[in-house]
């Protein structure tokens, strides 16, 4: 890979729950939730990197930390070789121009009081593009890139649009500032299956045409397979497997990855879907029914099981 757009080393994001004066008076200790617990990651130009895991795995928290909606607890985030971990003020504003996010909910992420033109134009106003004509041109260009006819939709409002169109408008808003990095946080999970493929193809095309580094976050390994160059499997705040997408899916090495694959619907009536436990054991061994003393007490080490395919599991 050429010089990465985004590079993450040892990233940690913990949340403290149950603190405060009342808890202290009652003698209750605060609880620490390790949402992201030591992640290394690189994403290159024009690469779509998939991040897959169940609810509670920490994948969305990781994405929001990378675009600085959360402040990391530990570790570092580099953008184009520059450390952005602790930036603030004008430096943070500049970074947010370069690093955008597409949210999961196309119904809640658009201001219902703004027209399509105003929604897409808003980031330009925030970042100081003062010329009306320039803003108008950029809005039309962004809508054209997401295949939304500007003449037909500029004056419409979110409630007049389908879910797929709303998500295309959200994507136009994300690219109007010409960022280099985008986090797509479950961008198709709330959309009808019939229109998911169109949004996925759009993201893949934009990554290729605009040179975008994209972190695609999903619980659905089938959609990850559709557009991602590489994939990491996240489990309780940590990566447990990563590599080339086709390789990981064809030959999963971690028990948890195997369970995710087994849970994918199949047209084969002889195949049996597996239900993934929503509250798994932190060792990860319960996902394979193979808990051992080693799993409980040892930190798994990364093993390259084949070229560019890595697994962190003491049972492998």
Amount of beta strand: 15-25%
What would you report as the Rg, rounded to the nearest angstrom?
21 Å
Give the helix level as a range of percent.
Answer: 25-40%
Mean pLDDT across the residues is 88
**How many strands appear in the DSSP assignment?**
12
Task: Give a written overview of the molecule.
The chain is α/β, with parallel strands linked by helices and 316 residues long. The chain has one domain: P-loop containing nucleotide triphosphate hydrolases (Rossmann fold, 3-Layer(aba) Sandwich), CATH 3.40.50.300. It is built from twelve helices and twelve strands. The chain has helices at 21-25, 59-66, 89-98, 116-126, 132-145, 150-153, 163-175, 193-210, 221-227, 245-250, 255-262, 293-297; strands at residues 6-17, 31-43, 48-52, 74-79, 82-83, 99-102, 181-185, 213-218, 230-235, 238-244, 302-306, 309-312. Strands 6-7-8-3-9-10-12-11 form an eight-stranded mixed β-sheet, with helices on both faces. Strands 2-1-4-5 form a four-stranded antiparallel β-sheet, covered by helices on one side. It is globular, with a radius of gyration of 21 Å. Residues 281-293 have low confidence and may be disordered.
């Amino acid at each position: 890979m050429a010089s990465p757009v985004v590079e993450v080393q040892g990233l940690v994001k913990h949340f403290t729950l149950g603190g405060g004066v009342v808890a202290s008076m009652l003698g209750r200790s605060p609880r620490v939730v390790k949402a992201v617990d030591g992640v290394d990651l690189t994403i290159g130009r024009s690469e779509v990197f998939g991040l897959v895991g169940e609810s509670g795995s920490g994948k969305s928290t990781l994405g929001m930390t990378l675009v600085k909606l959360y402040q990391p607890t530990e570790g570092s985030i580099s953008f184009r070789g520059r450390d952005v971990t602790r930036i603030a003020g004008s430096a943070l504003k500049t970074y947010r121009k370069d690093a955008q996010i597409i949210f999961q909910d196309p119904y809640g992420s658009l201001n219902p009081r703004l027209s399509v033109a105003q929604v897409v134009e808003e980031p330009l106003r925030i970042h100081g593009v003062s010329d009306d004509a320039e803003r108008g041109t950029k809005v039309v260009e962004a809508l054209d890139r997401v295949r939304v006819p500007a003449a037909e939709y500029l004056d419409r409002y979110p409630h007049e649009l389908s879910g797929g169109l709303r998500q295309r408008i959200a994507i136009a808003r994300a690219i109007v500032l010409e960022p280099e990095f985008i986090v797509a946080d479950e961008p198709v999970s709330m959309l009808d299956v019939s229109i998911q493929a169109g949004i996925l193809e759009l993201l893949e095309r934009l990554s290729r045409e605009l040179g975008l580094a994209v972190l695609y976050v999903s619980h659905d390994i089938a959609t990850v397979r559709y557009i991602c160059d590489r994939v990491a499997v996240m489990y309780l705040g940590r990566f447990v497997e990563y590599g080339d997408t086709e390789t990981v899916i064809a030959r999963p090495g971690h028990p948890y990855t195997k369970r995710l694959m087994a849970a994918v619907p199949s047209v084969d009536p002889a195949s049996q879907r597996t239900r993934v436990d929503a509250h798994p054991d932190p060792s990860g061994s319960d996902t394979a029914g193979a808990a051992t003393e080693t799993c409980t007490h040892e930190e798994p080490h990364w093993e390259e099981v084949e070229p560019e395919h890595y697994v962190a599991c003491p049972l492998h």
